[in-house]
Amino acid sequence: MSTLPPTLVLGASLAYLLALFGVAYWADRRAAAGRSVIGNAWVYTLSLGVYCTAWTYFGSVGRAAQGGVWFLPIYLGPTLAMTLAWLVLRKMVRIARQYRITSIADFIASRYGKSRMLAGAVTLIALIGVVPYVALQLKAVASGYALLTGQPPGGAHFDGTLLVALVLAGFTIAFGTRHLDTTERHEGLVAAIAAESVVKLLAFLAVGAFVTWGLFGGVGDLFQRVTADPAIARMLQGDPARPFAFDQWFTLLLLAGLSVLLLPRQFQVMVVENVDEGHIRRAAWAFPAYLLLINLFVLPIAAGGLLHLGVGAHAESFVLSLPLAAGLPWLALAAFIGGLSAATGMVIVEAIAVSTMVCNDLVLPGLLHSRRLAGRDLSRLLLAVRRGVIVALLLLGWFYFRIAGEAYALVSIGLISFAAVAQFAPALLGGMYWKGGTRAGALAGLGAGAALWAYTLMLPSIAKSGWLFGTWGDDFLRQGLFGSALLRPEALLGLAGLDNLTHALFWSLAVNVALYVGVSLWRPPSGREAAQALLFVDVFERNPRERVFWRGRVQVADLVALVGRFLGPARAAAALQAPPGAELADPQLVHRAETLLAGAIGSASARVMVASVAEEERLEVADVMRIVEEASELRQLNEQLKSLDQLKDDFMSSVTHELRTPLTSIRALAELMVEDADMPAPQRQQFLAIVVGETERLSRLVNQVLDMAKIEAGHAEWRNADVDLAVLIRQAAQTVQEMLRERGAELVLDLPDHVPLLRADPDRLTQVLLNLLSNAGKFVPREGGRIGVRLRCDAAGAAVEVQDNGPGVPAAQRALIFEKFRQGGPASQRPQGTGLGLPISRQIVEHFGGRMELRPDTGQGACFVFTLPWPVIPEPAPTGAAAANAGDKT
What is the pTM of this model? Predict the structure, then answer.
């Protein structure tokens, strides 16, 4: 097998890392010029490819060589998870953007009252899970280097893996910790990660294509040879005598689906670095497509390696060893660069995410208690802390790699890390959709889940590697803690028959969820927890400006000085501008200051810092609900004001339109008569008749508008008298009789002989009747039109029905005809009118305690009905003996 000179491999690696520097620098320059690179959905999607690490590049081939399709769940899990991206991921992005959340620890802590203890717990779990994962990446690079050069990467005077770790630390510091506010986008970093996703994909596809069509005659030839070799076929297809392990398959799917959201690096690129929620729509299908492409040749490479190099060959190195064995060192070098790309992408983003969490949630709380730092500008110090954490993390990963050696396979380390971050799922997902989750429940569930993860998975892995006090580790595995069989870590409480990963995930997540729900139900949330629950769960339903859950007193100057310690005095003064002359900050300004600080030091620490300068009142749950009700009432009032403003605009627009039409006609005819002094008398009379008609129409419109305004304002004049409704109906019928005769319509009255008297304004009721009759006359057909008026009386009052045989009112317009300037009927048959008649008529009827409505459509035209109650007659005062008896009773 041919090898490459170490200088060539190291030189190519450094050249590639320098190229990444160039991409990041170019993207930052474009962002400074206002031409963002990451504002593109494809760049966002490619940045999610950081999920595919050295585990994908080398470990998937090794797993496929051992179990065939068993590498698939690690990629099917994220594919299934992305089907819910628009529901879950978009909500995470919206919450993080509105409240300037900087990490997954910050997200969980902020949801539960901005708890510093919870943020610290999440950070510790993430850190424990990430260090082995960083070592995995460095191990992959070191193994690849050793294979390419034919010598180990470490030596007495030089260690190439250490150099890679330090270079990656420099890159991460240069493009990931330039500003303290971690909610500011890392434009250059994201662009470099997207470029890395392209590089590793192309390199892997190149190796896969070479193996499939270079070493073999295509996919058919390759797998025909596999089936011809029983030993290899058994490895790739599994043992047919054993049932399919559905529990393991489900465990891997669940782990991978959760990890694509909960790994610190995934949260960083998917949530914190997202610049547009709309990008999630494309990522929901394009990211699974990327996973499909990068795994397209996993099985062919695994099968080709087993056939070409033998069953005993190191399967995780097939991506490099196959090109080398075929005498193509340049392809092997390209594949190594692809693997380096997969490793560096993960390390860089993970280092940024973890450094933010460690700085904000572990280091900063101690710094804030230091009297020596009181009042000082901490921005440079915190940046230095983050940079130091990045270097320390990569050195820890390198140290872990040097000590662990070959104790862990790539896949084993990856799955242990996946199981660790899966413990975040109940608190994070539950907190996004359940308002009852509490800080105590989240702490109990997370603590117990992490402890069981360590006991049932992490410690057994260490024991199997021989690091756990020699024989004591073997006894711990076989006999359990204190020699109790019920405490065996891989058969806890007698649960046997599961593989170690499924067993550990079952116990850790089951207890985690049970405690999270049980403890949350046992004790109600505090006021601050309830407030944060509303902000998170209802993030899409309310404007964040309406939801400020803070009560107390604080000086504006103190707030500005506090924020200036972390973001600089100039930026703090510009961002926290109070009304002129205001000394005390209102809740909105306090919320703004706390949100700004959250972007720099995390929500939990920001909460503590604001409390240090403010006289804050304790919020109870009742206070939170009262604030919510006040905000809801205010929102309703604002909506009503907007609605009234819109109605005013519609009213003015409609009135202007209706006034303009007759005025235009009058002006045009008048100009014609002025310009033509010799106009024939008959034509002049015709024009004058039209002008008179238009002026009458104009007068009606003005009178109706004034009438409506007076009625709505309560200034209308009402001349009430005793009214015989049957007499009014006959009078109205006589008034419209000529108009109906011209249209060939028949008017039929159905009136009782005797009608009790009503107490109302006869002129107003006549106005209602004339409006209903004239409306009906406009819509009945020219021939065979029929209008029926029916009066019925009962104990409650009188009811008048006006039924026509016209086209009726379309279903879509039935709810609109009583609105101002709205008319019913088909648009093609709609006559001229102001659209004020029915609204005025309804107002008149309702003034007298009645109702007006349009009866349901029966297919026989429109039927309008209005009812009026009988007057209430007061009982006569008792007189004489009756009065005396009444007096005795009192």
Answer: 0.71
